[in-house]
Amino acid sequence: MTETNSDIYSLPTQLHLFFAAADRFPLRIAISDTHQDLSYATLREWIYGIVRALHSVGVSSGDRVAVALPPGAGLIASLLAIQYTGAAYIPLDRNAPRERNNLILDDALPKLVINEDGESSFTNCLVMDINRMLTTPATESANAASPSGVAYIIYTSGTTGRPKGVPVTHASLRALFQATESFFRFNEHDSTLLYHSYAFDFSVWEIWSVLAYGGKLVIPDDETRLTPAKLAQLIYNQNITLLNQTPGAFSVNSPWLCRFQKEDLALRFIIFGGERLNFRTLTHWQRHFGLTSPVLVNMYGITETTVHSSWHIISQDDLNKDESVIGELLPGFHYLIRPSDNDTQSGEGGELLLSGPQVTSGYLNQNNESNGKFVDIESNRVFYRYYCTGDIVKHNAAGKLVYLGRCDQQVKINGYRIETGEIESLLARHEAIRDISVIASSSTTHGPHLVCCFTTFPDKDKNVIPELRELAKQSLPVYMRPVYYRWLDIMPKTINGKVDKQSLSLSLE
């Protein structure tokens, strides 16, 4: 009897969908990295071998296993094998400071760390070598992943200086894809890049948008990933259909993609996430490719609400506005907009609170942090659990949600409360601007003031500071105008592709 899509989509976890895909498409390529093309059948065997190795050291349901591996087929096999045992994986970014990774290990207390050589650079942890694990004879066992079980724990920056672990269940992960399957039509002909660090939850979306449906995950090496010309060639060679990018990364990579003709690329969707999108920066792309093939989708979300929470299909009209529209919430979500302070007037926006099956339960081992960010709110005598995102939003005239910025990006200059995102949105109208960031600084000459840091497109004149000053003068009150403007060759980015405001601030000291 042949399984229908509805039968498959009723399976309880994304991991169950992967094994269903492996049964349906055993010879299709599941993973393509710099060393090999791995079929679904072979990847399944790798997983079974790693599972057996994990069982040999006592890993079972409810445990945690940390992973410190480079991007590649072995990494993906490890993540899926850990989940198969009923355990949760904890990604350790190999480029992060050792101190941060040790803080994560001290907090999570994993049963095991998987790395490349079996040597421990971490404190008080059992370590296993992935290469030895892959030689373990494969023996099929029961899939212990359950909807209520934790699939992964990703650590985000904490206000106390210690990273916060966010446990995400298989049910929340499945809810994300149940909400998006019908629109994106994930299928066995899709291919996507593992472009983002597996310590960044955008990677979760990249992995499961193909491996649960019989598609191909293409894993570039770091040189290719960080070289726009090589990345564009890989997207062409591998017939990538789903491309996920932060706006900052796309601003660097898109000019190289524009060297191809529309019919040369297999792209169906380009999905933006991770940071505020300035739609005006897409004008050059729109002139070359249009907005329907591929479709451009702006998605908003945070780790605590399982990657993505809202979506908006980008239209020509969006490119003519200064709003960063995040659109409508995914099915299953409910939301409230809470005024950011007592002075906020109706319609000016407020903090976004989210409730629904993708909202996680809280932070690992941090009850005080959890109680401050996850709150129960009564509605019709029923209490619903909401996550306080810290993001400021409002409705536009069409009733869509518009992202304004972070609560913690509000700065006070001479008593005025200023949302720097508003200034960035205005100045980004200038056609030469590629990336822009406005930060607060202080000096003995000017006291507290604003500094505008920006990069320009390669084919544009970088001497635009007088024009930016005039734009600010025409549209902003005096207290919101940057005092200094600084052209940068490259905008500093975090490992997740977001503007690194901390590095910018330090560079001004």
Automatic annotation (TrEMBL):
Superkingdom field = Bacteria
**Any Pfam family hit:** AMP-binding
Start and end residues of each AMP-binding enzyme C-terminal domain: 422-498
Q: Which residues form a coiled coil?
A: none
Q: Which InterPro entries match?
A: AA_adenyl_dom, AMP-bd_C, AMP-bd_C_sf, AMP-binding_CS, AMP-dep_synth/lig_dom, ANL_N_sf
On whether Ligase is a keyword of this UniProt record, the answer is yes
Q: Where does the record place the AMP-dependent synthetase/ligase domain? A: 18-364
What GO terms are given for molecular function?
A: ligase activity, forming carbon-sulfur bonds; phosphopantetheine binding
What does the entry list under GO cellular component? cytoplasm
Q: Does the keyword Ligase apply?
A: yes
Q: Which UniProt keywords apply?
A: Ligase
* Record GO biological process: amino acid activation for nonribosomal peptide biosynthetic process; secondary metabolite biosynthetic process
The UniProt entry, under NCBIfam families, shows: AA-adenyl-dom
- What name is this protein filed under? Amino acid adenylation domain-containing protein
Species source reads Salmonella enterica (Salmonella choleraesuis)
